[in-house]
Amino acid sequence: MLNIGAFITAFLISLIGIPPIIWFANKNGIVDKPNSRKVHNKPVPLLGGTVIFIAFAVPFVVFVGLNLKAISIIFCSVILVILGLLDDIYDIEAKKKLVVQICCSIIAVASGVKVNIGEYITENATMAFLVDGIISICWIIGIINAVNLIDGLDGLAGGVSIIASIAFVFILKGKSSNSMGNIMALSLAGSVLGYLFYNFYPAKIFMGDMGSTFIGFLLAVLGMLSLDVPDNPASVWAPIIILGVPIFDTGLTILRRVVHKKPLFCPDKDHLHHCIMARGFTQKQTVLIMYGFALLAALVGVVVAKGEHFYAGLVVIGLLIALGILMSCSIFTKIKRFIVNKTEIAVTKDKEMHFRG
């Protein structure tokens, strides 16, 4: 019951702290202005990520205390919040942001925040350490950017993050070795929930990149802390399933940009939530549908982990990959039709010009 205090504390700090930040952001013009790829039609205050961070950090430090892992998590979070703030204001180049994310990932891994599956892949201790480090760094960077990419509608990234956090709470519950992870998940869920009261449609404030990158980092860390490979091999699939919505959307985004020969970090308006809205759903309905997907993924992930269903988890991952391939085929078909139509139009115009000539 003591850990619930972390959730309540984070929630109250966030709930009370957001209104002053909204006033400050509006007064100083720190707002997200609408453009062609954004769905909001008026400037919305940023800086929501600052309150989320403070609301998370206070109970996390109070209930966990300071140790090497906790210090590295807070330190990396501060760096990512500052990076996100600068990006929100000055629009930093994607490659520079990636360098900072890699550095933060290395710091976290060096402090011991990493996966421990290398020893089951190779008996060489050095190679096992390198495998764990590489997987952990790639995982952290991947989830940071995955959460950032789904932050496209009012309340979307926040709600999905809360659902994932609560799922990790259930997985980490009762594990004395992972009490830090449990408190982290509760603190994160509480801080984002308080913010969501002001961010759900119509949003009064956005978390900005400073919020999404920091939250993505914490969710990546929670995914690694939830692993218990020696006693429960199925736990290796749970984080992937729980974070299935942002991971799935990111996978399709990468494929789409590769097909269109666009830069991987080039923003567009073709994410999963955009596709749902294109079907005629309102922004609020689309967010609720995405919540449904996230909740389903969270439930399946918890069942796989708690029930130690290794092969069931493997099947779920396989089905997600298959679904991604099917959707990719649909993308390729649309592109092919587009090219064919353009070619037919060009040929028709050439014939008309030749006839007139």
**Tell me, what's the shape?**
globular
What is the H/E string? HEEHHHHHHHHHHHH
β-strand percent reads under 5%
How many runs of DSSP E, i.e. beta strands? Answer: 2
Spatial sequence of strands, sheet with the most strands = 1-2
What's the pLDDT, averaged over the residues? 84
Determine the structural class based on helices, strands and strand pairing: mainly alpha
| Rg on CA atoms, Å | 22 Å
**Biggest sheet record:** 2 strands, antiparallel
Number of helices: 13
Q: Please report the distance between the alpha carbons of the first and last residues.
A: 85 Å
Overall number of structural domains: 1
Helix content: over 70%
Q: Uncertain runs with pLDDT below 50, 5 residues or more?
A: none
